[in-house]
Amino acid sequence: MAEESDVSISDDGEREEAMLTAARSVVRTCMQVRPHEHVLVVTDPSTAEVGRSLYEAAAEVTDRILMMMMPRSHRQGNEPPASVGDLMRRQNVVLLATRNSLTHTRARITASQQGARIASMPGIDEEMLAIGGMTADYNALQREISGLNPMLRRRRDVRVTSPAGTDITFRTGLRWVLE
Question: Which letter does DSSP use for residue 30 in this model?
Fold first, then answer.
């Protein structure tokens, strides 16, 4: 289980509800799953509860949902089993909630090329889903980011500072698009 953080959830029921709420945000807001779409959740034994929450959230939107459990023997950088890769490329949405990353695999690349929208969440655990960054208000975040457009348009060099000590400078690419 994850280490204790400043924010805690007192009981299992509360944790499950918090995970389901965040999973709904992933499914509905981030991935914009629609009722006619096919969704695949890929998980493994160490992330099974996260996978279950994502599955339940997606099942509220579509009945075209599958969940695959990766074998314990899967290692970082290895391709998933052929059956998982084959299913990935046939889906509209793929949610990869696994301990080891599948982001750079041929299976993920092929699925993306076939048009699948993919969220890869390597290393995600119950605490990350329940009280971590997945709980952000993405609609409010989009409004904040969109408000930066006029300030950042036609700028190549950007410096961000904060009272907490943040001081970062970076150069943008040829286009700066915030939506």
Answer: I
